[in-house]
Model the fold of this input.
Amino acid sequence: MKHPVVPDGSAQALTTSVIPDGSAQAPTAVIPDGSAKPSRAGISHDNGRARDGGDPGSPASRWLTGVRDDVLVSVRNDVSVSVRDDVSVSVREGVSVSVRRGEGAALRADRLRMVRGGRCVLSDVSVAIRPGEVTGILGANGAGKSTLLGALAGELAVADGEVSLNDHALAHLPTARQARLRAVLPQKPSLQFNLSVHDVVAMGAYPFPELSPARVHKEVNTAIDLADARHLASRPYLELSGGEQQRVQFARTLVQVLTGLQAEPEEPNYLLLDEPTASLDPKHQQAILRAAADICHQHEVGVLVVLHDLNLASRWCDQLILLHQGRLRATGTPQQVLQPEPLADAYDIQATVVPDPARPGRPRVWWD
Done:
């Protein structure tokens, strides 16, 4: 029986062998025939745990037992399977295998250096924003948080290094293509036209003219509700308070992501938020971050958010990036990053870190 190896068109194909089902080559992923129901972006094996939107004992999780970290696999009888380097794949009849070189879908900065106003504001920064994770950027004023987000958004010129979006150099992607794959909420959105709130939110669908008005209308209504802006929908945008305008702009970016998921369901999408909670009351700070986290985890969207409140970051982020004077000071989970020593370095103030009594496994930070 012959199993076809199909080179993936988006990257350099590897030379690999497709072996009969059940043979002993380690590490090996055995792909069951037929009944898999993967998430939109496939199943990611992360630090020994399979993440498929279900519990660790689900069939899709069991199928990935023994596979190396960072393997991205989509398992169905009629869908190709993408795996990382150095992984053998055992397949059954009717399953094609696509192997490509690369580190999987992500929004990445590699050895990034940024210069603004003749001053180096970021130096040797390498980060990855992965689908299905909320990543927070932390740091004192002037640490380079907004500059890093702007570089990852393709809105600022890179002095050195590279930014890539799903394994494609961002500098080579047309602006219209970027808009279909990522939505950006700037720190200070500017809009001088006195449109209604509904019309401003609907602007998020502009990159997707192929979608029907009914589909766009549905996503606009969803986003307005997630931003708690239903009562504002018919009001003129320019008459709103600063916090209300911030929520409307957040809803616009949600529409851009939600319509992107409809237009290109196989392409990972990203939501970039620069201090989205700055003008909001505590209720709406939580609501905005909850909506972003829900979309991230339910739809495998990569979310990047700049925050000043470390306890909000601990509550809502899966990964954190801590910047200090334009360099990485720490990266990892909230438990790894929110520690007294790196916080003292980054903020020049002592901090006490304790377990959050309301959220097991999450730290809480008190400034001394």
The first strand starts at residue 18 and ends at 19.
